[in-house]
UniProtKB/TrEMBL annotation:
Top-level taxonomic group: Bacteria
CDD domains: STKc_PknB_like (cd14014)
Keyword presence, Nucleotide-binding: yes
Recorded GO MF terms: ATP binding; protein serine/threonine kinase activity
Gene3D superfamilies in the record: Phosphorylase Kinase, domain 1, Tetratricopeptide repeat domain, Transferase(Phosphotransferase) domain 1
Name of this chain's protein: Serine/threonine-protein kinase
Protein kinase domain sequence ranges: 83-370
Keyword Cytoplasm belongs to the record: no
Length: 944
């Protein structure tokens, strides 16, 4: 075997030496070799003949061309360093690729190993293989396979281990999943970002093609095979050698590679353009029917047909293969036509200097197309097209008059472009001077006032000056007013925002039309402000219309469409359309994550919206996990002392309060209040919202004084906040109940119901939750008839709005069950009570405090109805599941006292005294225990 390897190495060296020569120069060397070693000469002649075939080496393995090599197989189980080969994954021009597993027992791991093929380890190939390994070692990017290890096999072949990526080729995946045009562009952006990173490390790939791009199950792309990559810093010689020419893929090679001209980063731009063209149309931009460099060069000199035209011409059948059964070729063609056609055309220019200067520029234009912005690329001017035409068909151009017409047209187009550029520059300068003038008076030397203006004052002046000073350019004036008009709401003045934005919307509708994109963009801002002002009906109409227009104009997977869907989801939450809100939030977040990645602020904001809608759909544990991710992402990106952290802190406080993790909830609210006071000021609505929730959790923890202070401060912040003030009165009512001031509680709930009705409407569940608690307060005062009116209505409305099995409906059923017990209607009370238990048990589990509270209510009803045995079974279960710090623990004195009463009914005096003593001890720990409970507990504890 050693002799065979040595013989093959000698043949390979001779092949490398002779393949670079012309046929006439080869022959003398081959004749000399014939006389020296006829067998070796025959092998070399066979290799050279194979290389000279039209299809070349790329379509065949070396085993096909030289059958003797096929017997030199790498065995399964071969040990390479810490790894053992499991099965072959494929092979390339230089190496075999194997799936391997960690074999040293340190830990379990699967990797991909590339091993130099036997028999071709010439100095040139070995140098190229080692260079590939060296290149991978210097690249560290999530979109490029990572080098893990390397070494030499026992038979002297180099190898390296890299990440094993489970996935499929980019073209195959796009067709199998029927990805949209926008989703395909997103994949291309990922690949371009990885290539741009390689270029930043002075590495040109030189063999970009779909087969070297794998997409994993999460939709992330991975760039493979740097086998003929070039280090720009190694020699300064960027030309493609004949050997490299044999290894590259001509279908994706740039013209300069085909012709052996210098290559650089623009070479990869061209290859990415070819990949993009194929990914979008299913075809290559040029039909490369020959591998002859001269013929290929002639083919590539022709400008490719537009991608949109190729797709339209391919027809419905090809469109369905690429984009799914419902695909429409003409609609897809229109989607690509225009800017995307221009972007591809620029990447595929024949001359490297006319392509994108960098891959990053190519990626940026793809992103601009995705977000509906103007791309940097521009169509070729007619003058350039004319010169190209003349160069290619110089003998066929005879009509001088036609030439003149075309030149004049090209000149006119250039003048129009120049005029437009000057206009844009003038507008930009006008905006700059306008903004700078607003801030100049903040300079303590220049300003006329003694004190600098507040941010709100600055915005108000900006709005007035925009109306006055930008009247010569109506569109610019409306653009500036729209931007400034959205700001006052964020500073606690939604009324000013609403006034300005309404004016802009009306003028946009009049000047550009109701369905114009510019109008829809302002409607999004106006809808959000109107929603915060307590007009959900109008807000929904504005946001639904705006979201539809933006999705139509920019595509449903654009960033602006995602933002609009996010605003619409918030409106659905307010009006109680919880399932629609959840679907809308999921869609918005998925789009933004695909566009910006999981750690971007915009993605995290929509993830928070998803957390809110999960909570509204009674999926509190999922909501808590989601908001924790938001908080961690904000802290990682913005630091731990940023105003934007107040939102995830407030929401985590709310969710942990619902899960009865009260100390944890209080800690979140305390931190949120501190940040809001420091960064937002003492009267901001967001501070009021957090204080409202903080007051509620403090009440639940027994700190009535702290709760009262928080609610008082919160009310000052929410004086004009409509529905948010309604929530504050809900929490104030709960505090009055805890203080046993039930008439005041009923009044607070009545005010809450009035506010919710006025600002959220009767279609909001909050209106009926307030009515429910109003009924409970009236029940406690003894007005059972009035209580029944509100409780029965609340249950009916909540079941209609949220469904019979929602948490809110379960609460209403539980409250009405108490009333039925007091009315002596035990059958109805038991049915409602058991329904309540079913709902909370499904949501929280059988041992959660909410479930225990509902079971305690059921035990009270069972005892009242005479079902003593059933009551004891339920009550003992509740006693076993009391957890410190929960609502059940707060009720523990009443639970022990009820157990004592039940023991009296059962004739178990000893247990009655024990349970009464436990109740007495727990009441003694309270600052203000209810006198009637104290008296009863003392009596039962002393009874004999």
């Amino acid at each position: 075997m050693a002799d065979e390897l040595s013989r093959w190495a000698r043949a390979a060296d001779l092949f490398d030496e002779l393949v670079e020569l012309a046929a006439a120069e080869r022959e003398p060397r081959l004749r000399a070799l014939d006389s020296e070693d006829p067998a070796l000469a025959a092998e070399v002649r066979a290799m050279l003949a194979a290389d000279d075939r039209a299809e070349g080496l790329l379509e065949h393995s070396l085993g096909d061309l030289v059958p003797e090599i096929s017997a030199w197989e790498t065995p399964v189980g071969l040990r390479l360093g810490a790894y053992r080969l499991v099965r072959p994954l494929g092979e390339g021009g230089m190496g075999e690729v194997w799936l391997a597993e960690r074999a040293d027992g340190e830990y379990h791991q699967h990797v991909a190993i590339k091993l130099l093929k036997r028999g071709i380890d010439t100095q040139a190939v070995l140098r190229r293989f080692l260079q590939e390994r060296s290149i991978l070692a210097r690249l560290n990017h999530p979109g490029i396979v990572r080098l893990l290890d390397g070494g030499m096999s026992l038979d002297g072949r180099p190898w390296y281990a890299m990440d094993h990526v489970e996935g499929e080729g980019i073209v195959e995946l796009a067709s199998r999943r029927a990805l949209s045009v926008a989703e395909r562009v997103d994949l291309l952006v990922q690949v371009a970002d990885a290539v741009a990173y390689a270029h930043a490390q002075l590495v040109v790939h030189r063999d970009l093609k779909p087969g070297n791009i794998i997409v994993d199950s999460d939709g992330a792309t991975h760039l493979l095979d740097f086998g003929i990559a070039k280090l720009l810093e190694d020699t300064g010689d960027f030309t493609v050698t004949a050997t490299a020419m044999r290894l590259l893929s001509p279908a994706y090679a740039a013209p300069e590679q085909i012709l052996g001209e210098p290559v650089g980063t623009a070479t990869d731009v061209y290859a990415l353009g070819v990949v993009a063209f194929q990914l979008l149309t299913g075809q290559l931009p040029h039909r490369r029917q020959s591998r002859d460099p001269a013929l290929l060069a002639h083919t590539l000199a022709q400008p490719p047909e537009r991608a949109s035209s190729v797709l339209a011409r391919a027809g419905a059948g090809q469109a369905r293969v690429l984009y799914g059964e419902s695909a429409d070729a003409q609609r897809l063609s229109r989607r690509i036509a225009g800017d995307l056609d221009v972007v591809l055309a620029k990447a595929l220019q024949r001359e490297p200097e006319r392509r994108y200067a960098t891959v990053s520029s190519f990626a940026d234009d793809l992103r601009r197309w995705r977000t509906g912005r103007v791309v940097a690329a521009r169509p070729d001017r007619r003058g350039y097209r004319l010169r190209s035409f003349v160069r290619r068909h110089r003998w066929g151009v005879a009509a001088a008059t036609a030439l003149l017409v075309i030149l004049i047209a090209g000149f006119s187009a250039a003048l129009w472009q120049a005029g437009r550029a000057r206009q844009q520059a003038q507008r930009a300068e006008l905006v700059k001077q306008f903004v700078l003038s607003l801030f100049r008076e903040q300079d303590p030397v220049a300003r006329a006032q003694a004190q600098a203006r507040s941010p709100r004052d600055l915005i108000v002046e900006g709005i007035e000056r925009a109306r006055r000073e930008l009247s010569s350019d109506p569109r610019l004036r409306l653009d500036v007013l729209a931007d400034l008009g959205a700001l006052p709401a964020a500073l606690g003045d939604p009324a000013l925002s609403e006034e300005v934005l309404r004016q802009v919307v009306e003028q946009r509708r009049h000047g550009e039309g109701s369905d114009a994109l510019a109008t829809a963009r302002v409607e999004v801002e106006l809808g959000s402000v109107v929603l915060s002002r307590g007009e959900p009906g109008e807000a929904l109409a504005l946001l639904e219309h705006a979201a539809a227009v933006i999705a139509r104009e920019l595509g449903p997977d654009s960033e602006e469409a995602a933002h609009a869907r996010g605003r619409l989801a918030r409106a659905y939450v307010v009006v109680g359309e919880r399932a629609r809100a959840l679907d809308m939030a999921r869609s918005a977040h998925a789009t933004m994550q695909a566009r910006r990645g999981p750690g971007h602020i915009a993605t995290l904001e929509l993830l928070g919206l998803l957390g809110t809608t999960l909570e509204q759909n009674d999926r509190c544990q999922e909501a808590e996990d989601t908001w924790r991710k938001v908080l961690e992402g904000f802290e990682r990106t913005l630091g731990e002392d940023h105003a934007r952290l107040t939102v995830p802190l407030a929401n985590l406080g709310t969710i942990t309060r619902s899960l009865q993790k009260y100390p944890e909830s209080a800690a979140y609210f305390a931190r949120g209040v501190s940040l809001a006071r420091r960064h937002l000021g003492g009267r901001h609505p967001l501070l009021g919202t957090i204080l409202t929730r903080q007051g509620d959790v403090l009440r639940r923890m027994g700190d009535f004084e702290g709760a009262e202070a928080a609610l008082e401060e919160g009310e000052q912040c929410l004086a004009d906040a409509g529905a948010q003030l309604g929530q504050l009165y809900m929490n104030r009512g709960a505090l009055k109940v805890a203080q046993r001031r039930h008439a005041e509680a009923a009044d607070a709930y009545a005010e809450s119901q009035r506010l919710f009705t006025a600002h959220a409407g009767e279609g909001s569940p909050y209106t009926w939750l307030a009515a429910m608690e109003r009924g409970v307060a009236l029940m406690t005062t003894g007005d059972l008839d009035a209580a029944a009116t509100y409780l029965e209505l609340a249950l009916d409305k909540l079941e209609r709005l949220n469904g019979r099995d929602s948490y809110d409906s379960g609460m209403a059923a539980g409250r009405l069950s108490r009333l039925r017990r007091l009315q002596g209607r035990y059958a109805g009370a038991l049915g409602l009570g058991r329904h309540h238990i079913d709902i909370v048990s499904k949501l929280y589990g059988p041992t959660h405090a909410n479930t225990s509270d509902a079971r305690f209510d059921l035990a009270l009803t069972l005892r009242a109805s005479g079902a003593t045995g059933d009551a004891r079974e339920v009550l003992d279960d509740v006693l076993r599941n009391i957890q410190p710090g929960t609502s059940t623990a707060t009720l523990a004195p009443q639970i022990h006292l009820e157990s004592a009463r039940l023991a009296v009914d059962e004739g178990d005096r000893a247990r009655a005294r024990r349970d009464a003593a436990a109740a007495l001890a727990l009441l003694g720990e309270q600052r203000d225990p209810e006198p009637s409970l104290l008296a009863e507990a003392r009596q039962l504890a002393a009874a004999r």
